[in-house]
């Protein structure tokens, strides 16, 4: 994690995650599937706009233990691909403005060993010296080579909705 984010630590006005929530939701014919992860880590450099985060895949928690086991072993292959990452730049954010701001994060999203260019729309709000970042976006499983089993195709949607919520605090050495 540190090696992945190290370049961001070299400039001023840095923020580091204090809290994170990543939720994915799959709406399918047979059943809806939701999982939550509160172990994501990230850094944001306000002066350059650079942002990076890492999500440990094994830390997604499901309602049913069997779903969690299948997710890790059959679909996400977490032994081989232990994390999802994003590295890019945020545009449209005016630091020091307390109002809710709509921003774009342009960069590279890596899931299941596949990296794709993405443009993710989200918001940033300042509250008590902290930055609150939120976004909701779709991930098409086939784009990231995540297998969708033939026999259970009605259980898993072709795309999942990902919601992220990060609270960033000022980084202090």
Brief description of this entry?
This protein is mainly beta and 173 residues long. It has helices at residues 2-5, 65-75, and strands at residues 14-26, 33-37, 41-45, 50-56, 61-62, 83-91, 101-111, 114-127, 130-140, 159-170. The protein has one domain (14-170): Lipocalin (Beta Barrel).
Descriptive report:
The chain has two helices and ten strands, in the order αβββββαβββββ. With 173 residues, it is mostly beta strands. It has a single domain, classed as Lipocalin. It is elongated and about 45 Å long.
Radius of gyration, whole Å: 17 Å
Total number of strands: 10
| Overall tally of domains | 1
Give the helix/strand class: mainly beta
Order of SSEs: HEEEEEHEEEEE
CATH architecture: Beta Barrel
Multimeric organization:
single chain
Give the overall pLDDT as a whole number. 89
* The named CATH superfamily: Lipid/polyisoprenoid-binding, YceI-like
Spatial strand sequence of the major β-sheet: 1-3-4-6-7-8-9-10
Spans with pLDDT under 50 lasting ≥5 residues? 1-11
**N- and C-termini, Cα separation:** 17 Å
Strand content: over 45%
The helix fraction, in percent, is under 10%
What count of helical segments does DSSP give? 2
Descriptive tags:
173 residues, mainly beta, Lipocalin, eight-stranded antiparallel barrel
In terms of topology, how is this protein built?
Blueprint: H1 2-5, E1 14-26, E2 33-37, E3 41-45, E4 50-56, E5 61-62, H2 65-75, E6 83-91, E7 101-111, E8 114-127, E9 130-140, E10 159-170
Antiparallel strand pairs: 1-2, 1-3, 1-10, 2-5, 3-4, 4-6, 6-7, 7-8, 8-9, 9-10
